[in-house]
Structure to design on (223 residues):
């Protein structure tokens, strides 16, 4: 595969361990009320409900987090008080990068321009960018395009900013949010399959699959 000039990254689930961040925030908040939430059940509910909230209408991501937290709490049988639903947004800046993220970004930045396409607000993303050792040339957020992936606006904006789809390789951890819409628009895509799930049969296929970002750097020939 011909190396691209620009690597665009999904952030949460690709660079940042969103499952660890979300589950920790929920469980810490629930513990204040004497509750112990099951991590796997919590994450399954969150993964189902957040896309529903995002698809209803455009809300800021801060509002998406609050409304999703409310619905997840109801699903889990936890009557969370509405004015406490901002605990997710408050915790987001502490969500940790994956262990491979820092070293991989340092390597990749030596050869490629880097960008982020993320379902988030500008101010919330700033908290996560502070974790990364390598600079990102530009970002496309939900706040900028007023929609959420898998809607195409992030990718269309990236193509315009890059000066053509052929210059981009999109790096992502979600088939639903990223691989499907990116492939529909003719972008090259690499799927970071951190859970070793394998490419779903009959679904959209990335150009290739890696286990983590260090493998991506190896695959792209970056020392």
């Amino acid at each position: 595969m011909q190396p691209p000039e620009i690597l665009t990254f999904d952030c949460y689930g690709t660079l940042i361990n969103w499952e660890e961040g979300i589950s920790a925030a929920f469980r810490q908040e629930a513990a204040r009320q004497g509750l112990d939430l099951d991590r796997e059940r919590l994450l399954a509910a969150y993964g189902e409900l957040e896309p529903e909230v995002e698809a209803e209408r455009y809300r800021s991501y801060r509002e998406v987090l609050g409304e999703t937290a409310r619905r997840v709490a109801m699903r889990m049988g936890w009557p969370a008080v509405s004015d406490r639903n901002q605990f997710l947004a408050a915790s987001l800046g502490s969500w940790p990068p994956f262990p491979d993220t820092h070293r991989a970004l340092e390597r990749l930045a030596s050869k490629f321009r880097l960008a982020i396409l993320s379902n988030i607000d500008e101010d919330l993303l700033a908290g996560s960018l502070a974790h990364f050792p390598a600079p990102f040339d530009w970002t496309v957020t939900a706040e900028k395009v007023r929609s959420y992936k898998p809607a195409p606006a992030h990718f269309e904006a990236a193509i315009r900013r890059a000066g053509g789809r052929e210059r981009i390789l999109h790096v992502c951890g979600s088939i639903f949010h990223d691989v499907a819409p990116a492939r529909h628009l003719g972008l090259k895509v690499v799927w970071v399959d951190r859970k070793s799930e394998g490419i779903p049969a009959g679904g959209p296929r990335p150009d290739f699959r890696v286990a983590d970002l260090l493998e991506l750097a190896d695959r792209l020939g970056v020392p």
Observations:
- The two ends are 18 Å apart (CA to CA).
